[in-house]
Amino acid sequence: WLEPGPNTKIPALNKDLVPSDLDCHLPSDKYFDIEKFLDNMHKYQIKCTVFREDWRYVLLLDQTAKTGPFMMDLIEPHVALTHDRIDLDVSNLSLEKDYIKELGMRVDITHNPYAIELETIVDNIKNKRFQVLRPIDDFLQPRIDKMKSRGWTQLGQPMHVIPNPPPKYQVVIVPLPESTELYRTLVQTMKTYINNQVQVLSIKQIKNPLLEESYLAMKQLIAKQCKGENPNERELFHGTKGEAIDGILKDGFDDRYWGENFSKCKWGHGAYFADNPSVSHRYTEANPDDNTRVIYYNKVVLGNESILQVQNNDLMSAPKGYHSTHGQSPGQLDNDEYIVYRYGQALPYLRITYIG
């Protein structure tokens, strides 16, 4: 039932025999005494071997029992956010101590933009359906294939769910796995349009609940003003430098800081985006310490676009009846820029750190 795991010092369950292990989050408000825990296990005649890692205890239970072994992870609370990505909605159910008759969610995904209710998950289990809640990588794809081979049906496109940060934190960033299709596509796009020598060091997904709420509200407002209530949402690049790198991460595209050099911008006082990363690359600057640059990959609500081919650096907003400006430079292919003028009209989604 056991086989070597990714860490060869720690065994793993054979997934063909045992579909899953048990993940438990340790309390953040009091000390967890592993020795006391093991003493209690001994009282119930449960044999337990402990493997310690920086961010968790891995417990191997009843290794020699006739019923077969079982494994449990005890995850430290301060790292739960970055390691606790949910693979599937049907894997997100939990029980709390002293409330074992009440189903709950391991991570709350009832809020926007996910809005998945407990009843929906239970109904999916009853009907052998599931939703993917993280980017599909080389580790997740076999799980999906196995679910399908057992007669389960995948619903819709994968969602990228990241748990909210604790109240004292405003934002959390989580690495996007290198084996995901999105990661590979972005790396290839950077190499194709900037230069083939570009070295992408990391791509990290951003979770900032306050910015998300502001963006979703603006998206709904603009949608109501567009034909067919289509907000014209795009995923676009934005290059930046210096203090703005962390500023965007925490506060988004804050219109208070657009005015410093807007007289030099082609279409006025706004936040500039591009579908070609080489355009955004021009706005970056190499960090003198490590030569790295940063480009953000963003969700942007363009609404009704005003297409302008004549520069106008006096613009303070999109022309009346429009929500954004689509700036074009005649004779220059792949050089378009998209400008929004209101706070909340763009959401930083991924932070790309690279050298090139």
Automatic annotation (TrEMBL):
GO terms for cellular component: nucleus. SUPFAM superfamilies: ADP-ribosylation. Transmembrane segments: none annotated. Keywords: Glycosyltransferase, NAD, Transferase. Residues 162-356 form the PARP catalytic domain. It holds the Pfam family PARP. This is Poly [ADP-ribose] polymerase. It comes from Rotaria magnacalcarata.
